[in-house]
Amino acid sequence: KAGVTQTPRYLIKTRGQQVTLSCSPISGHRSVSWYQQTPGQGLQFLFEYFSETQRNKGNFPGRFSGRQFSNSRSEMNVSTLELGDSALYLCASMSGRHNEQFFGPGTRLTVL
Amino acid sequence: AQSVAQPEDQVNVAEGNPLTVKCTYSVSGNPYLFWYVQYPNRGLQFLLKYITGDNLVKGSYGFEAEFNKSQTSFHLKKPSALVSDSALYFCAVRVDNTDKLIFGTGTRLQVFP
Fold it and tell me: Which of A6, A40, B37, B90 is surrounded by the fewest CB atoms within 10 Å?
């Protein structure tokens, strides 16, 4: 089985722009979660989607949003980018509730 | 509120020696605990989990973890370290009845030849 894939792997944007990141879960996995990883704040939960519905949300401003499609693929969007949004964004998928999450390689976002 | 602590930023060990990476947790109910490893420029790889049952959990690549309820700890161990084990290790706890994970700050493991 193919693992979790994320595109693009690297992205450079400037302040004020917006960005969309994509995640394709492992085949058959219906839950997708997003995490932000930075040197200062570590790994922080953004949100989780299941069957196209947001099931949980972390403590991030409204500039961060996401969605999930009927094929379980997910996207997250960050609008009005700030320098502090520079991070590795990780997507994870899960086969069922309370199981382990499998992570993709991440998208490295740099905001200039 | 759930939380996870990894008290050591870095652990150094010689190849062939046993290794321990420490993790303590705080949860309001039954703990669901996980260990992940991250290699440079890669995502997180699942190592093992504790949901219920035996306190000694065996995982991938020869790693195991010991769940200790009285000490609220879930330390990661390996009997004989390899240079290739050098990486960043994260302990995580599941929040309440969700699938949201709270991660520790990570411990960098350096195994010297």
Answer: A40
